[in-house]
Amino acid sequence: MNTLTELFKKEHTGEFILIILIIIYLILGFKTPEIIAVMIDNVIGKVVIILIVIYLFMHANPILAVLAALVAFDLMRRSNDVTGLGALAAYAPSEKKKMSQFTAFNQFPYTLEQEVVAKMAPIVRSGSSLNAASYKPLLDNLYDAAPLNTSN
């Protein structure tokens, strides 16, 4: 109760006017201008607002400091709404969601084509010797080009 009576003293009229302005801002719910919202809706702007609130907790009336904390939270929320970054974070898909959708789309059943190719393809195992080829490769016309394995 002492802080409330101290607030009405003549030397604290600035704090009293600031409290009235804060209450008006909270009740009427003014929309934050886009220019201010862009400055507030980033890390530096939020840190500056938090530092101002901490300063008010240390040096001003506790009622003013609590109201300033409420206004700071509301101002950050309204700035987030104006810039649209909150909606972007809420509705834009994350990489984890995208990858889960891709893996769901890429689940195919074993097809007839895969079965036929698996039966037709010769099985080559490493380390096993292959039979000698029954054909002899022919060299096509080189058009006066030098073979690759000759040295100059």
Helix and strand arrangement:
Elements: H1 2-7, H2 13-28, H3 34-40, H4 43-59, H5 62-83, H6 85-91, H7 95-105, H8 112-120
Describe the protein in words.
By secondary structure, the protein is mainly α. It has a domain at 2-85. The chain has eight helices and no strands. It has helices spanning 2-7, 13-28, 34-40, 43-59, 62-83, 85-91, 95-105, 112-120. Helix 2 (13-28) packs parallel to helix 5 and helix 3 crosses helix 5. The chain starts with a helix and ends in a 32-residue tail after the last helix.
Features:
single chain; 152 residues; mainly alpha; 0% strand; rod-shaped
Average pLDDT, rounded to a whole number, is 81
Helix content: 55-70%
> Ends: how far apart?
103 Å
Largest sheet: none
C-alpha geometry: rod-shaped
Uncertain parts? none
Helix and strand pattern? HHHHHHHH
Number of helices: 8
Global Rg: 37 Å
Say how many strands there are: 0
Strand-pairing-aware structural class:
mainly alpha
Could you tell me the strand content as a percent range?
A: under 5%
Structure described in brief:
The chain is mostly helical.
